[in-house]
Design brief:
Helix content is 67%, strand content 2%. The protein is an all-alpha fold. It has 2 domains: 9-88, Winged helix-like DNA-binding domain superfamily/Winged helix DNA-binding domain (Arc Repressor Mutant, subunit A, Orthogonal Bundle); 96-229, Four Helix Bundle (Hemerythrin (Met), subunit A), CATH 1.20.120. Strands 1-2 form a two-stranded antiparallel ribbon. Strand 1 and strand 2 (71-72) form a beta hairpin. The model has no long low-confidence stretch (mean pLDDT 91).
Length: 231
């Protein structure tokens, strides 16, 4: 049985403040209203507000200085991995080019964690690839399988930081995947990637696996709809 735990008032307050920061009600480098005024605006007690602000300060959304107004941080420059996870959950408020930036990062990371996984757990990755090659020609199926493959590779890479970074985008990845895989060219490119990666494993060539992954990630970035092209 799965139990759902109601959110605490501080957690709800934290989420509301993040939304206000993302939609620029409180833009970067501005100051939040005083504690008393902000608590009234949010309809919470001052202890609840303080707890929420402490959480936001920990992750890089705000800067708290005793005796001074609370400053809203430039979260893209001052935030940590928790900010990435929140951005992934607030898909309607993503910064411009955020998805392209994310694909660039994946282009750097995926070859490394895939190569490591092919070395440490070739049979596991091979089995996942064989399942990928048998997918129905549907965007949702591809998105789900692609997430599973990349997650599996991070887990078996031997470096848990790869997995933590990828998990930060667990909410955004399926949405991105379905958009990407609606394009038949995206599904075709991924089939070619899965087939090539499988051959590299069968050949026992982890360096080739890295090269194939790097090329595939570059191709994925090229196929992603560009806002500058009006897609």
């Amino acid at each position: 049985m799965q139990w759902s735990t109601p959110k605490k008032p501080a957690e709800i307050t934290e989420e509301r403040l993040i939304e206000a920061i993302l939609n620029k009600d409180f833009p970067p480098n501005s100051n939040l209203p005083g504690e008393r005024e902000l608590a009234v605006q949010l309809g919470v007690t001052r202890p609840t507000l303080r707890e929420a602000l402490q959480r936001l300060g920990r992750d890089g959304w705000v800067e708290i200085n005793q005796g001074k107004p609370t400053r809203v941080c430039n979260y893209l420059e001052e935030g940590n991995l928790a900010v990435l996870a929140e951005l992934a959950r607030h898909q309607g408020d993503l910064p411009e080019n955020f998805v392209h930036n994310l694909l660039e990062v994946r282009e750097l990371l995926a070859p490394a964690y895939t190569q490591a996984a092919v070395v440490s757990a070739p049979d596991v990755i091979k089995e996942a690839l064989e399942e990928c090659l048998d997918l129905p020609d549907e965007a949702e199926a591809f998105a789900r399988a692609d997430w599973h493959l990349h997650h599996l590779c991070t887990v078996h890479s031997g470096n848990p930081i790869f997995t933590l970074i990828l998990n930060g985008f667990q909410d955004l990845y399926p949405v991105m995947g379905e958009i990407y895989f609606r394009n038949p060219a995206g599904r075709k490119a991924s089939r070619e990637f899965y087939a090539g990666l499988l051959k590299s494993i069968e050949a026992g060539d982890a360096d080739l696996a890295r090269q194939i992954t790097e090329t595939a990630m570059q191709r994925a970035a090229e196929l992603w709809p560009s806002p500058r092209k009006g897609k």
